[in-house]
Amino acid sequence: MARIVGKPGRYGMEHEAKILQKQLLIGMFLIMGIGIALGASFRFVGSWIAWVMVAAELGLLWYGKRLFSRLDDCRKAWSSGSEGEREVADALAKLPDCYCVIHDISTDYGNLDHVVVGPKGVFAIETKRWKGSVSADGNGGLLLNGKQLSKDPVKLLTGAIMRIKERLIPLTQISDVYIQGLIVFPISYLDAKWGSTGSAHCLVPDKIESYLEQWYNPKRTLSSEEVERIARGFAALARMEEGFECVVTADHGR
Fold first, then answer.
1. In angstroms, how far is CA 132 from the centroid of its own chain?
2. Which residues pair with 102 in a beta bridge?
3. CB within 8 A of 29, min separation 6: which ones?
4. More confident: 94 or 219
5. Domain limits of the chain?
6. How far apart are CA 210 and CA 95, in angstroms?
7. What predicted TM-score, i.e. pTM, was given to this entire model?
8. CATH number of 3-8+97-239
9. What pLDDT, in 10s, does the model give residues 204-215?
10. What is the DSSP string of the chain?
C-alpha cells in the first residue's frame, strides 16, 4: 500500500460547505423579507400598497428560487468533483509501498488533486468526473462530447506543474525533477490516446498502476532517498494550506 498524505476531495468539500452557508444565509434573509412584506400587505388590505407588497413577495420568491438553483448546481459540481477525487484516491492507495501519494495541493494556477512520487518519477494528477465522451481536439487539448471546452484542462495542469515545480526546488534541492501530468476520468468514456493530448496523458483509474509500471522517464529514475525528499517537499507545500490534514501513512519502519 502506498503512503498517503492528505485527504482527497478536501478542497471541494470546503467549497461545498461555503456554498451551503451561503444558501442558509440567503434563506434566512428571504424568509425575513417575505415575512415583512406579508405583514405589510395584511396591514394595508384593500389599498394599492397591499398589491405592491404581494408583488414584492412574488419577486423575492422568484429571485430566491433562481439563486438557490444556481448555488445548488455549483454545490453539486463541487460534490461530484470531490467524489471523483476519492475514487481516484482509492486506486492510488493500491500502489506499492515505494510510492507516496499526496492529496490536495494548491498552486497559483489552481489546485492539484493528487501527486504521486515513486521510483518511476513524479506524477501530478487532475481528476475530472465528467459525464459523456472525452476525446482529443487535434491540438493537444480535449473535447467533451465533441465540444470545445472554455478552459483547457491540459494547459491548466501544465501551468500548475510549472508553478509547483518552482516552489518545490528550494524545499528539495533537486532541480532536475520531471513531473508528468495525468488527467484521470472516473466515469467518462475516454477516447484520447497518449500523445494526442499534449504534455498530459489521459486515463481511467484502474489503469493508473499499469501506467506507472510501463512509464519510462527519459531523463532518469529516482533513488529512494530522492523519493523521500520530494515526497516531504510536496507534503510541506500541502501543509502550508489552511485545513490540510495528514490522514494515513503506511509503516515504513521510520
1. 19
2. 5, 115
3. none
4. 94
5. 3-8+97-239
6. 10
7. 0.73
8. 3.40.1350
9. 999 998 888 887
10. --EEES-TTHHHHHHHHHHHHHHHHHHHHHHHHHHHHHHHHHHTTTSHHHHHHHHHHHHHHHHHHHHHHHHHHHHHHHHHHHHHHHHHHHHHHTS-TT-EEEEEEEETTEEEEEEEEETTEEEEEEE----SEEEE-SSS-EEETTEE-SS-HHHHHHHHHHHHHHHHHHHH------EEEEEE-SSSEEE--TTSSTTEEEE-GGGHHHHHHH---SS----HHHHHHHHHHHHHHHHTSTT-----------
**Residues β-bridged to residue 81:** none
Instruction: Determine the residue type at 183.
Output: I
Neighbours of 157 (CB within 10 A): 23
- Per residue in 27-61, pLDDT tens? 777 777 777 766 766 666 667 776 777 777 777 77
Q: What percent of the chain has pLDDT over 90?
A: 18
Rounded-to-integer distance, Cα 99 and Cα 227, Å: 8
C-alpha cell at position 49: 400598497
pLDDT band at 217 (very low <50, low <70, confident <90, very high): low
How many residues in total does the chain contain? 254
Between CA 183 and CA 126 the distance in angstroms is 5
- Beta carbons within 10 angstroms of residue 83's beta carbon: 17
| Mean pLDDT rounded to a whole number for the chain | 79
Is 168:228 a contact under the CB 8 Å cutoff?
no
